[in-house]
Amino acid sequence: MTATRGSAAPARLHRSPVLVLGLPRDPAGPRHVAGFLVITVLTVLVTRAALALTGFPQLGGGGLHVAHVLWGGLLMALAVVATLSWAGPVVRPLAALVAGIGFGLFIDEIGKFVTSDNDYFFEPTASLIYVVVVLLVLVGEVIHGRGRPDPHETLSAAADLAVAGLAGGFSTRARRQARALADAAGDVRGAAEVKALLAVVEDDARELPDPISAVSRWVVTTSRRVVRVRWLPRLTVAVLAVVTLYTVGRGVVLIAGGADLPWWAEVGMIASGVVSLACSVVGLRLVGTDRVRGYEWFRRAVLVNLLLTQIFLFRVDQWSAVSGLAVDLVLLGVVAAELDVLRGRAGKDPALDVEPAAAEGRGPR
Hints:
Layout: H1 2-13, H2 17-20, H3 29-53, H4 68-85, H5 91-107, H6 110-113, H7 125-144, H8 151-168, H9 172-185, H10 191-200, H11 211-226, H12 232-256, H13 263-287, H14 291-317, H15 322-342, H16 356-359
Helix pairs in contact: 3-5, 3-7, 4-5, 7-14, 8-9, 8-10, 9-10, 11-15, 12-13, 12-14, 12-15, 13-14, 14-15
Protein backbone atom coordinates (compact mmCIF):
# COMPACT_ATOMS: atom_id res chain seq x y z
CA MET A 1 0.00 0.00 0.00
CA THR A 2 2.87 2.35 0.80
CA ALA A 3 4.45 1.75 -2.60
CA THR A 4 1.15 2.48 -4.33
CA ARG A 5 0.79 5.79 -2.52
CA GLY A 6 4.36 6.70 -3.33
CA SER A 7 3.90 6.00 -7.02
CA ALA A 8 0.72 8.09 -7.14
CA ALA A 9 2.35 11.21 -5.71
CA PRO A 10 4.55 12.06 -8.72
CA ALA A 11 1.55 11.75 -11.05
CA ARG A 12 -0.27 14.44 -9.06
CA LEU A 13 2.77 16.71 -9.16
CA HIS A 14 2.62 16.77 -12.96
CA ARG A 15 -1.01 17.86 -13.06
CA SER A 16 -1.94 21.51 -13.40
CA PRO A 17 -3.11 23.32 -10.25
CA VAL A 18 -6.58 23.57 -11.77
CA LEU A 19 -6.80 19.79 -12.13
CA VAL A 20 -5.51 19.26 -8.62
CA LEU A 21 -8.41 21.42 -7.44
CA GLY A 22 -10.80 19.08 -9.25
CA LEU A 23 -11.63 21.34 -12.22
CA PRO A 24 -11.17 19.35 -15.45
CA ARG A 25 -12.13 21.12 -18.66
CA ASP A 26 -15.07 19.84 -20.66
CA PRO A 27 -13.91 18.92 -24.20
CA ALA A 28 -17.23 20.28 -25.46
CA GLY A 29 -16.71 23.51 -23.51
CA PRO A 30 -15.36 25.60 -26.42
CA ARG A 31 -18.40 24.66 -28.48
CA HIS A 32 -20.80 25.56 -25.69
CA VAL A 33 -19.07 28.89 -25.01
CA ALA A 34 -19.03 29.73 -28.72
CA GLY A 35 -22.71 28.83 -28.99
CA PHE A 36 -23.54 30.97 -25.97
CA LEU A 37 -21.76 34.01 -27.47
CA VAL A 38 -23.20 33.55 -30.96
CA ILE A 39 -26.70 33.30 -29.52
CA THR A 40 -26.01 36.40 -27.43
CA VAL A 41 -25.08 38.44 -30.52
CA LEU A 42 -28.03 37.09 -32.54
CA THR A 43 -30.40 37.94 -29.68
CA VAL A 44 -29.15 41.53 -29.61
CA LEU A 45 -29.57 41.89 -33.38
CA VAL A 46 -33.03 40.30 -33.41
CA THR A 47 -34.15 42.37 -30.41
CA ARG A 48 -33.00 45.65 -31.99
CA ALA A 49 -34.64 44.75 -35.31
CA ALA A 50 -37.92 43.68 -33.69
CA LEU A 51 -38.11 46.84 -31.58
CA ALA A 52 -37.39 49.05 -34.58
CA LEU A 53 -40.08 47.32 -36.66
CA THR A 54 -42.69 47.63 -33.89
CA GLY A 55 -41.92 51.23 -32.97
CA PHE A 56 -40.14 50.44 -29.69
CA PRO A 57 -43.21 49.50 -27.64
CA GLN A 58 -43.14 49.46 -23.85
CA LEU A 59 -44.51 46.58 -21.81
CA GLY A 60 -46.36 47.88 -18.80
CA GLY A 61 -48.57 50.80 -17.88
CA GLY A 62 -49.43 53.18 -15.11
CA GLY A 63 -45.88 54.44 -14.85
CA LEU A 64 -44.37 50.96 -15.08
CA HIS A 65 -42.03 49.71 -17.81
CA VAL A 66 -40.96 46.06 -17.77
CA ALA A 67 -37.62 46.36 -19.59
CA HIS A 68 -36.32 43.33 -21.45
CA VAL A 69 -33.22 43.38 -19.26
CA LEU A 70 -35.47 41.78 -16.61
CA TRP A 71 -36.47 38.94 -18.94
CA GLY A 72 -32.80 38.48 -19.73
CA GLY A 73 -31.94 38.19 -16.05
CA LEU A 74 -34.74 35.67 -15.55
CA LEU A 75 -33.50 33.48 -18.41
CA MET A 76 -29.91 33.61 -17.13
CA ALA A 77 -31.15 32.61 -13.68
CA LEU A 78 -33.08 29.67 -15.19
CA ALA A 79 -29.90 28.53 -16.98
CA VAL A 80 -27.92 28.67 -13.73
CA VAL A 81 -30.64 26.77 -11.83
CA ALA A 82 -30.69 24.10 -14.55
CA THR A 83 -26.92 23.55 -14.50
CA LEU A 84 -26.95 23.43 -10.70
CA SER A 85 -29.87 20.99 -10.61
CA TRP A 86 -29.08 18.29 -13.19
CA ALA A 87 -25.91 16.19 -13.24
CA GLY A 88 -24.12 15.21 -16.42
CA PRO A 89 -23.48 16.97 -19.74
CA VAL A 90 -26.96 16.80 -21.30
CA VAL A 91 -28.24 20.01 -19.74
CA ARG A 92 -25.25 22.18 -20.74
CA PRO A 93 -26.12 22.85 -24.41
CA LEU A 94 -29.67 23.84 -23.50
CA ALA A 95 -28.37 25.98 -20.64
CA ALA A 96 -25.98 27.69 -23.08
CA LEU A 97 -28.92 28.38 -25.41
CA VAL A 98 -31.15 29.84 -22.67
CA ALA A 99 -28.28 31.79 -21.10
CA GLY A 100 -27.27 33.19 -24.50
CA ILE A 101 -30.76 34.54 -25.10
CA GLY A 102 -30.90 35.91 -21.57
CA PHE A 103 -27.50 37.57 -21.75
CA GLY A 104 -28.36 39.06 -25.15
CA LEU A 105 -31.51 40.66 -23.71
CA PHE A 106 -29.49 41.86 -20.72
CA ILE A 107 -26.50 43.36 -22.56
CA ASP A 108 -28.73 45.01 -25.18
CA GLU A 109 -29.80 47.56 -22.57
CA ILE A 110 -26.26 48.47 -21.50
CA GLY A 111 -26.78 52.00 -22.79
CA LYS A 112 -29.35 52.63 -20.05
CA PHE A 113 -26.89 51.74 -17.32
CA VAL A 114 -23.81 53.67 -18.44
CA THR A 115 -25.60 56.98 -19.08
CA SER A 116 -27.10 59.40 -16.56
CA ASP A 117 -30.28 59.80 -18.64
CA ASN A 118 -30.87 56.05 -19.23
CA ASP A 119 -30.25 56.42 -22.98
CA TYR A 120 -31.04 53.14 -24.74
CA PHE A 121 -29.77 54.69 -28.00
CA PHE A 122 -26.38 55.69 -26.58
CA GLU A 123 -24.08 55.79 -29.64
CA PRO A 124 -21.19 53.60 -28.37
CA THR A 125 -23.62 50.83 -27.33
CA ALA A 126 -22.66 48.57 -30.23
CA SER A 127 -18.96 48.94 -29.43
CA LEU A 128 -19.55 48.26 -25.73
CA ILE A 129 -21.51 45.09 -26.50
CA TYR A 130 -18.82 43.94 -28.89
CA VAL A 131 -16.07 44.62 -26.34
CA VAL A 132 -17.92 42.52 -23.76
CA VAL A 133 -18.27 39.64 -26.24
CA VAL A 134 -14.59 39.88 -27.19
CA LEU A 135 -13.56 39.80 -23.52
CA LEU A 136 -15.66 36.68 -22.99
CA VAL A 137 -14.06 35.10 -26.06
CA LEU A 138 -10.63 35.81 -24.55
CA VAL A 139 -11.71 34.33 -21.21
CA GLY A 140 -12.80 31.18 -23.02
CA GLU A 141 -9.49 31.10 -24.86
CA VAL A 142 -7.59 31.39 -21.57
CA ILE A 143 -9.55 28.48 -20.13
CA HIS A 144 -9.62 26.16 -23.14
CA GLY A 145 -6.62 27.30 -25.17
CA ARG A 146 -3.85 26.14 -22.81
CA GLY A 147 -2.36 23.17 -24.64
CA ARG A 148 -3.84 19.79 -25.36
CA PRO A 149 -6.22 18.19 -22.84
CA ASP A 150 -4.59 16.32 -19.99
CA PRO A 151 -5.37 12.54 -20.11
CA HIS A 152 -7.10 12.91 -16.75
CA GLU A 153 -9.37 15.57 -18.26
CA THR A 154 -10.24 13.31 -21.17
CA LEU A 155 -11.01 10.43 -18.81
CA SER A 156 -13.12 12.77 -16.67
CA ALA A 157 -15.12 13.71 -19.77
CA ALA A 158 -15.79 10.03 -20.48
CA ALA A 159 -16.93 9.54 -16.88
CA ASP A 160 -19.11 12.64 -17.21
CA LEU A 161 -20.86 11.07 -20.17
CA ALA A 162 -21.31 7.91 -18.12
CA VAL A 163 -23.29 9.95 -15.58
CA ALA A 164 -25.94 10.66 -18.20
CA GLY A 165 -25.72 7.11 -19.56
CA LEU A 166 -26.31 5.47 -16.19
CA ALA A 167 -29.52 7.46 -15.82
CA GLY A 168 -30.96 7.27 -19.31
CA GLY A 169 -28.83 4.87 -21.35
CA PHE A 170 -26.53 5.42 -24.31
CA SER A 171 -27.50 5.93 -27.89
CA THR A 172 -25.14 4.34 -30.40
CA ARG A 173 -23.51 7.69 -31.11
CA ALA A 174 -23.17 8.60 -27.42
CA ARG A 175 -21.54 5.25 -26.62
CA ARG A 176 -18.99 5.73 -29.41
CA GLN A 177 -18.22 9.21 -28.15
CA ALA A 178 -17.69 8.06 -24.57
CA ARG A 179 -15.52 5.11 -25.64
CA ALA A 180 -13.38 7.32 -27.87
CA LEU A 181 -12.74 9.70 -24.97
CA ALA A 182 -11.86 6.82 -22.64
CA ASP A 183 -9.47 5.37 -25.25
CA ALA A 184 -7.89 8.79 -25.82
CA ALA A 185 -7.11 9.05 -22.11
CA GLY A 186 -4.64 6.20 -22.45
CA ASP A 187 -3.41 4.12 -19.53
CA VAL A 188 -4.08 6.50 -16.65
CA ARG A 189 -5.40 5.52 -13.25
CA GLY A 190 -9.12 4.76 -13.45
CA ALA A 191 -9.24 4.23 -17.22
CA ALA A 192 -10.02 0.52 -16.97
CA GLU A 193 -12.75 1.18 -14.42
CA VAL A 194 -14.36 3.88 -16.55
CA LYS A 195 -14.31 1.62 -19.61
CA ALA A 196 -15.94 -1.14 -17.57
CA LEU A 197 -18.58 1.33 -16.40
CA LEU A 198 -19.30 2.42 -19.97
CA ALA A 199 -19.69 -1.22 -21.00
CA VAL A 200 -22.57 -1.83 -18.57
CA VAL A 201 -24.60 1.25 -19.55
CA GLU A 202 -27.85 0.24 -21.20
CA ASP A 203 -28.74 1.03 -24.81
CA ASP A 204 -31.33 3.75 -25.40
CA ALA A 205 -31.83 5.48 -28.74
CA ARG A 206 -33.61 8.50 -27.26
CA GLU A 207 -31.61 11.73 -27.01
CA LEU A 208 -32.33 15.22 -25.77
CA PRO A 209 -32.04 17.73 -28.66
CA ASP A 210 -28.72 19.59 -28.80
CA PRO A 211 -29.15 22.50 -31.25
CA ILE A 212 -25.70 23.99 -30.54
CA SER A 213 -23.91 20.76 -31.45
CA ALA A 214 -26.11 20.28 -34.51
CA VAL A 215 -25.20 23.74 -35.82
CA SER A 216 -21.54 23.18 -34.90
CA ARG A 217 -21.40 19.94 -36.86
CA TRP A 218 -23.05 21.62 -39.84
CA VAL A 219 -20.54 24.51 -39.77
CA VAL A 220 -17.55 22.16 -39.52
CA THR A 221 -18.83 19.86 -42.27
CA THR A 222 -19.74 22.73 -44.57
CA SER A 223 -16.43 24.56 -44.11
CA ARG A 224 -14.45 21.42 -44.85
CA ARG A 225 -16.46 20.79 -47.99
CA VAL A 226 -15.95 24.38 -49.04
CA VAL A 227 -12.16 24.25 -48.79
CA ARG A 228 -12.11 21.31 -51.21
CA VAL A 229 -12.81 23.88 -53.93
CA ARG A 230 -9.22 24.58 -54.91
CA TRP A 231 -9.62 28.23 -55.80
CA LEU A 232 -11.58 29.16 -52.66
CA PRO A 233 -8.61 29.50 -50.25
CA ARG A 234 -6.97 31.89 -52.73
CA LEU A 235 -10.19 33.87 -52.96
CA THR A 236 -10.35 33.96 -49.15
CA VAL A 237 -6.86 35.44 -48.95
CA ALA A 238 -7.75 37.99 -51.62
CA VAL A 239 -10.91 39.04 -49.77
CA LEU A 240 -8.92 39.31 -46.54
CA ALA A 241 -6.39 41.61 -48.22
CA VAL A 242 -9.14 43.77 -49.74
CA VAL A 243 -10.95 44.06 -46.39
CA THR A 244 -7.83 45.16 -44.51
CA LEU A 245 -6.81 47.62 -47.24
CA TYR A 246 -10.32 49.07 -47.24
CA THR A 247 -10.26 49.46 -43.46
CA VAL A 248 -6.93 51.31 -43.49
CA GLY A 249 -7.98 53.49 -46.42
CA ARG A 250 -11.27 54.34 -44.82
CA GLY A 251 -9.58 55.37 -41.59
CA VAL A 252 -7.24 57.67 -43.51
CA VAL A 253 -10.17 59.24 -45.37
CA LEU A 254 -12.10 59.82 -42.12
CA ILE A 255 -9.14 61.54 -40.50
CA ALA A 256 -8.39 63.61 -43.61
CA GLY A 257 -12.03 64.62 -43.90
CA GLY A 258 -12.27 65.74 -40.28
CA ALA A 259 -15.09 63.34 -39.42
CA ASP A 260 -16.89 64.00 -36.13
CA LEU A 261 -15.65 60.84 -34.46
CA PRO A 262 -13.47 60.07 -31.43
CA TRP A 263 -9.80 60.20 -32.37
CA TRP A 264 -9.15 56.85 -30.71
CA ALA A 265 -11.69 55.14 -32.97
CA GLU A 266 -10.07 56.50 -36.14
CA VAL A 267 -6.50 55.83 -35.01
CA GLY A 268 -7.44 52.41 -33.66
CA MET A 269 -9.12 51.45 -36.93
CA ILE A 270 -6.00 52.39 -38.91
CA ALA A 271 -3.54 50.80 -36.46
CA SER A 272 -5.41 47.49 -36.17
CA GLY A 273 -5.95 47.47 -39.94
CA VAL A 274 -2.21 47.91 -40.49
CA VAL A 275 -1.46 45.05 -38.09
CA SER A 276 -3.97 42.80 -39.87
CA LEU A 277 -2.51 43.79 -43.24
CA ALA A 278 1.02 43.04 -41.99
CA CYS A 279 -0.10 39.57 -40.85
CA SER A 280 -1.64 38.99 -44.29
CA VAL A 281 1.59 40.03 -46.04
CA VAL A 282 3.63 37.66 -43.87
CA GLY A 283 1.16 34.90 -44.68
CA LEU A 284 1.45 35.59 -48.40
CA ARG A 285 5.25 35.39 -48.19
CA LEU A 286 5.15 32.07 -46.33
CA VAL A 287 2.26 30.30 -48.01
CA GLY A 288 4.31 29.40 -51.10
CA THR A 289 6.89 27.45 -49.10
CA ASP A 290 5.00 26.53 -45.91
CA ARG A 291 1.23 26.54 -46.32
CA VAL A 292 0.52 25.73 -42.68
CA ARG A 293 2.56 28.67 -41.36
CA GLY A 294 1.12 30.89 -44.08
CA TYR A 295 -2.47 30.11 -43.10
CA GLU A 296 -1.61 30.50 -39.44
CA TRP A 297 -0.67 34.11 -40.25
CA PHE A 298 -3.88 34.53 -42.25
CA ARG A 299 -5.77 33.31 -39.18
CA ARG A 300 -3.97 35.90 -37.06
CA ALA A 301 -4.95 38.58 -39.55
CA VAL A 302 -8.64 37.60 -39.31
CA LEU A 303 -8.47 37.44 -35.52
CA VAL A 304 -7.01 40.96 -35.37
CA ASN A 305 -9.95 42.10 -37.49
CA LEU A 306 -12.44 40.34 -35.22
CA LEU A 307 -10.95 41.18 -31.84
CA LEU A 308 -9.68 44.71 -32.51
CA THR A 309 -10.69 46.33 -35.80
CA GLN A 310 -14.38 45.51 -35.43
CA ILE A 311 -14.49 47.30 -32.08
CA PHE A 312 -13.52 50.56 -33.77
CA LEU A 313 -15.70 49.92 -36.81
CA PHE A 314 -18.73 49.45 -34.57
CA ARG A 315 -17.96 52.84 -33.02
CA VAL A 316 -17.64 54.44 -36.45
CA ASP A 317 -20.54 52.73 -38.27
CA GLN A 318 -22.66 51.44 -35.42
CA TRP A 319 -24.90 48.59 -36.55
CA SER A 320 -23.90 48.66 -40.22
CA ALA A 321 -20.59 47.11 -39.14
CA VAL A 322 -22.46 43.82 -38.71
CA SER A 323 -21.83 43.05 -42.40
CA GLY A 324 -18.07 43.32 -41.84
CA LEU A 325 -18.37 41.04 -38.83
CA ALA A 326 -20.18 38.45 -40.94
CA VAL A 327 -17.42 38.59 -43.58
CA ASP A 328 -14.73 38.12 -40.93
CA LEU A 329 -16.54 35.13 -39.44
CA VAL A 330 -16.81 33.47 -42.85
CA LEU A 331 -13.13 34.15 -43.53
CA LEU A 332 -12.17 32.69 -40.15
CA GLY A 333 -14.24 29.57 -40.82
CA VAL A 334 -12.61 28.97 -44.21
CA VAL A 335 -9.08 29.63 -42.94
CA ALA A 336 -9.62 27.37 -39.91
CA ALA A 337 -10.98 24.59 -42.12
CA GLU A 338 -8.02 24.91 -44.49
CA LEU A 339 -5.64 24.67 -41.53
CA ASP A 340 -7.39 21.51 -40.35
CA VAL A 341 -6.95 19.95 -43.78
CA LEU A 342 -3.30 21.02 -44.06
CA ARG A 343 -2.52 19.61 -40.63
CA GLY A 344 -4.04 16.29 -41.57
CA ARG A 345 -6.88 16.65 -39.11
CA ALA A 346 -9.77 16.69 -41.55
CA GLY A 347 -11.02 13.39 -40.16
CA LYS A 348 -11.34 14.68 -36.62
CA ASP A 349 -13.78 16.83 -34.75
CA PRO A 350 -11.97 19.94 -33.48
CA ALA A 351 -14.47 20.40 -30.69
CA LEU A 352 -13.66 17.08 -29.06
CA ASP A 353 -10.48 16.04 -30.87
CA VAL A 354 -11.77 12.52 -31.36
CA GLU A 355 -12.48 10.49 -34.47
CA PRO A 356 -15.74 11.05 -36.40
CA ALA A 357 -17.29 7.87 -35.03
CA ALA A 358 -17.16 9.42 -31.58
CA ALA A 359 -17.90 12.92 -32.78
CA GLU A 360 -21.32 11.87 -34.03
CA GLY A 361 -22.65 11.47 -30.51
CA ARG A 362 -23.60 14.91 -29.33
CA GLY A 363 -26.67 14.28 -27.26
CA PRO A 364 -25.83 11.52 -24.78
CA ARG A 365 -28.41 10.31 -22.31
